[in-house]
Specification:
By secondary structure, the chain is an alpha+beta fold. It has helices at 113-119, 146-160, 185-199, 223-236; strands at 9-12, 16-17, 19-24, 27-32, 40-43, 55-60, 67-68, 75-78, 81-84, 130-132, 168-171, 203-206, 245-254, 257-265, 271-272, 279-281, 290-294, 299-302, 305-308, 311-315, 323-326, 337-339, 348-351. 26% of the residues are buried.
Length: 356
Amino acid sequence: PPSDAGKPALLRLGTMNDADHTWVNGVLVGGRSNVYEPRDYPVAAGVLRAGANEIRMRLVVERPGGRVTPGKRMTLTIGDDIFDLSGIWQYAVTAEADRDCPFEDFVRWKPTGLYNAMLAPCFPYAVRAVLWYQGESNTGDYAMRYGDELKAMIKLWRGKWHQPDMPFLIVQLPKFGIDAIEDGGWPLIREQEWRVADELEHVAAVVTLDAGESNDLHPHDKKTIADRAFNVAMDFVYGQQAQPQPVVETAEADDGLLRMHCVWRNSMGEQMQSQNRHLMTLDGDVPREIDFLWHDCATSVRAEAWLDGCDIVARIPSRMPDEVRYAWSNSPESGLICDGDGVLLPPFHLPLPMVD
């Protein structure tokens, strides 16, 4: 509209793969070199005009999977006015290469690159604690090794920094869907991270299922994860009381119902009193991420489940399953379970007793 002509604006185009240059009415407003950085570009005063305006983008696709990421919001904001830019765009392939583009030579992918070049020089410096937020590259065929590898790394770092009790805070992998095969790797890494925290002293894990984005490996919401890591660090590193963590450790079958009991533990693994505590869901929906698994046919079904105080209750199918699982997928979405303080329940899977 004429009232917005000439005003400065903010252009948001989500993310895309791989590198872009973007113009508005022939004026270059920005560019990014990779899929992870949001295309948030300021448009200077005087660029926009009344009536039709053209946004033109050149996207260089350096590897398979070129795209504009689906599900990202695309807008132009001018003052209080927000214009939706989603929908159908025109495009054309203007050039193609007959061989792959050269890649940057990452030293961390070379033998000894991570340790000798990037880690060892840090050993002379003082370290109070470690915040570890990794694991997505280990979700493939060797996901089951991750726990042993992580424990070995923690012991190595503690030895090199001469701190046998150095606190180690692990951020569990958040939800993620795009570009990730649903092969069980993401839940396995989350489980390995939780087990390491359970098996080693002065190690804690932080649940972040709700802080991820199914279409972004680097989710926009950093504050939620930071707040939860801070909560654990206050207890774990600085000796101040923090919110305890709800966990499900046992399940009992009776009269066609499976009752999964929740307890609360502090960051040192000590069980806390559960009086006046209860479970709820973040979105107020019923728990939708409980499912049953049969090993002989590798089949799973979503369970009819509800919450009862400190328990999760699910109706058992006529044929007894081998396992019950919670949030056992790359990107669990709705009905995520938490306590009254909003502390999320970690994913779990429990074996079930065989019943004739």
